[in-house]
Structure formats: C-alpha cells, structure tokens
Specification:
- This protein has 10 helices and 12 strands.
- It has one domain: Aldolase class I (TIM Barrel).
- The chain has an 8-stranded parallel beta barrel, surrounded by 7 helices. Strands 1-2 form a two-stranded antiparallel sheet.
- It is 32% helix and 15% strand.
- By secondary structure, the chain is α/β, with parallel strands linked by helices.
- Strand 10, helix 7 and strand 11 form a beta-alpha-beta unit.
- The two termini are 22 Å apart.
- Helix 1 runs parallel beside helix 2.
- Bound molecules: 1-[(3S)-1-benzylpiperidin-3-yl]ethanone.
- The site of 1-[(3S)-1-benzylpiperidin-3-yl]ethanone has 6 residues, from loops.
- 1-[(3S)-1-benzylpiperidin-3-yl]ethanone binds next to loops.
Length: 359
C-alpha cells in the first residue's frame, strides 16, 4: 500500500493522491489573460495523474504582476479565460487550484528568458512597484518601491478578495495566497523588506497584520467546502530574517482564522541565498516541524524528484502532499512513472483510458 497514492481529504475536497503540481510562472499571458498555453500546460499535468494542479502566481491587479507576461484575475474577462482551464483539470479527476499573488517590490521585471531584473523605466511595459517600505530588493531588482499608504493596503486587500471571488466563479476548488518568495505578502512579514513604524510593521504582530487581515478577508468569501491555503516563506536562512519559529506562530494564527494547509517554502526577501541549505528535499524538516508544532496539513516542494523520496516523505508523516515543480515540467506523467517505480498493481490507472496503450 503506497502512502503517496493514498487519498487526502481537505475540507470538502478529496484528492486522489498526494502528488500535486506546484504553481509555476509561465510568463506567457497577454494583458494577464490566460490562453491556450495555460490550458495545455496545466491540462497535460492533470492528464498525467496529479491530484491537484495549481495554476501559477496570478496577479490580483496589473501592478501585482511579476512580469508583463504574468496571468491576472483583476477582471471578469480574466476569469472567463481561466474557466476552461479549471474545467479541464477537473474533468481529468484532479482538483483545480490557483495561487493569487501580488509581486510587491519584486514587480515589473523581465521574464527569465528575456532579461534579468527590472524592466528599464523607459520601457512602455514597465510600472512602479509598491512595497511595505521604500527599500529595493537589491541585486538586479534595483527599483525602489513606493511605500504603500494605508489606502494602498486596503485597496490591495480588496483586490485579493475580488480575485478570490473570481477564482471561485471560474471553477477553482483550491485557493492559495502567495506569502512567499519575497512578494508582497511575504515582504510585509520580513524585517528585511518591512521597515514600517505604523501598525503594519515592527514587532511580530505588526509584520503579521497584513497577512492575517488579507487572509481573513479572503476566507470570508472563499467557501468553507474548499481548502484555503497559503504558501509561506518560512525564513530566508539569514540572521536578519524572520525565523522559522515566527513563521510557525503565524501559521497557528492563520489556522485559527481558517487556514486548511500551508505550503512551506523559502523566503526570497534577499538576493543573498547563501544560507539556503539546498539539497534533495531540504524543506522537508521544516515541513515536518510545522506540521507537528502548528498541527496543520502541510505541503512541501523543493528538490523532490524521486518517487521513493516522495513516498518516504508522506509515509513518515513529514508532509501531507508533495507539490512538484521542475520534476513535473520534465515529466508531466511523473505520477504514472512513480506508480510504476513504486510497484503499484495497476499503474496505468493513473492515466486516462486514452493513454492505456502505454507500455
Ligand atoms: C523563484 C524564487 C524562489 C524562491 C525564492 C525567491 C524566488 N521563483 C519564484 C516564483 C516565480 C519564479 C521564480 C514565484 O513564486 C511566483
């Protein structure tokens, strides 16, 4: 009996296995609108047998995009474009999910294959990023963000709520708030990015305020029957970073507000990555700790590539689901190949009948 291929119940949703597709930016939208690429990219991975297919970091407003090619959910037209994507994923027996995001001070940058860092100010596609404080990220993201006013904060929180409503209307059944990787939510929690002296900065309570309030506002419109999740950057692994202990306390507070699962990730508030303990499954110990200390369902990614490794993570109770990224780009049929490698009795059942002629 495989733990990786056991069901996972999250609220009213039953996932058919513990293998999910992590949200992965495609930088391929036009004016934030999803199109054929997103349908085929995400649809192929639903065909491949993942139980949860997460659409990429999707901006709640135009200035919340990381790049001009990022998807958005800031109008009903955007929702209409995502509806066939969600519908197809569901038709393959996978749960359709979406991550909603605001890029904050890491906005207005090139797609990775077009350049590095910020779009130049004279590029007509560039815009002014905002953040908790007027502190630039650094390295090649040199633009100093405009410090958000209290009105800006309210507006962005409303944008998260509107995007959540639209995500529901277009058929997504799992919603993830992007509170990782140095984007807006994460940056409010980080003493590296957040130097505010008002109620939204300073102490743990102040730095947590934007994240907790935004979560609460979204929870009020996201139905109880579907999981509401957060991807949280647990630490930057730097002395000046927020700590794993603080993150676990934040997870406890989010849980009290209705969080169903936390996807543990890295911080991304500093270009200094020297403290990140890269290596196979390096986030698993933090996932296990979070699960134990916050008593909540946990997802984990990062350098998880092998079926036996994924099986062990779930079997040992370190996490409830693995969310694969690069491994899924490499092999959309990763779940089928994992079922074979783990010696499941009928691995072809992972794929739809149209593909049962595989060897
Ligand atoms: C890179 C990244 C990972 C972890 C910390 C900082 C940066 N990813 C982040 C992605 C976009 C592509 C690059 C998102 O989370 C949207």
């Amino acid at each position: 009996m495989s733990a990786l291929f056991s069901e996972l119940r999250l609220k009213g949703l039953t996932l058919k296995n513990r293998i999910g597709v992590s949200p992965m930016c495609q930088y391929s939208a036009v004016d934030g609108l999803a199109h054929d690429w997103h349908l085929v990219h995400l649809g192929a991975r639903a065909i491949g047998g993942a139980s949860l297919v997460m659409a990429e970091a999707t901006a709640v407003s135009p200035e919340g995009r990381i790049t001009p090619g990022c998807t958005g959910l800031w109008s009903d037209k955007h929702a209409e474009r995502f509806a066939p994507v969600a519908r197809f994923i569901k038709s393959q027996g996978a749960a359709p999910g979406i991550q909603i995001a605001h890029a904050g001070r890491k906005a207005s940058t090139y797609a990775p294959w077009e350049g590095r860092g910020n779009l130049p100010a004279n590029d007509p596609a560039a815009w002014q990023p905002v953040g908790p404080s007027a502190v630039a990220y650094g390295a090649d993201i040199t633009v100093t963000p405009r410090e958000m006013t209290l009105d800006d904060i309210r507006r962005v929180q409303d944008d998260f709520v509107s995007a959540a409503r639209r995500a529901l209307e277009c058929g997504f059944e799992t919603l993830m708030l992007h509170y990782a990787h140095g984007y807006l939510g994460q940056s409010f929690f980080s003493p590296i990015a957040n130097r505010r002296t008002d109620a939204y900065g300073g102490s743990f309570e102040g730095r947590a305020k934007f994240l907790l309030e935004t979560f609460s506002a979204v929870r009020a419109v996201w139905p109880e029957r579907f999981p509401l999740t957060v991807r949280l950057g647990m630490t930057d692994f730097l002395p000046e970073s927020h700590t794993v202990d603080e993150s676990i306390e934040l997870v406890r507070r989010l849980k009290a507000l209705g969080l169903d699962l936390v996807d543990v990730s890295v911080g991304g508030n500093s270009p200094d990555n020297s403290g990140i303990p890269y290596g196979p499954g390096f986030m698993v110990p933090i996932a296990a700790r979070t699960k134990r200390e916050a008593d909540i369902a946990v997802a984990v990614g990062w350098q998880i590539t092998e079926p036996a490794q994924a099986e062990r993570i779930i079997a040992e109770g370190d996490a409830d689901i693995v969310l694969l990224a690069r491994a899924m780009l490499d092999d959309p049929h990763w779940p089928f190949h994992a079922a074979k490698a783990l010696g499941l009795p009928n691995p072809k059942s992972v794929l739809p009948p149209q593909y049962h002629r595989v060897g």
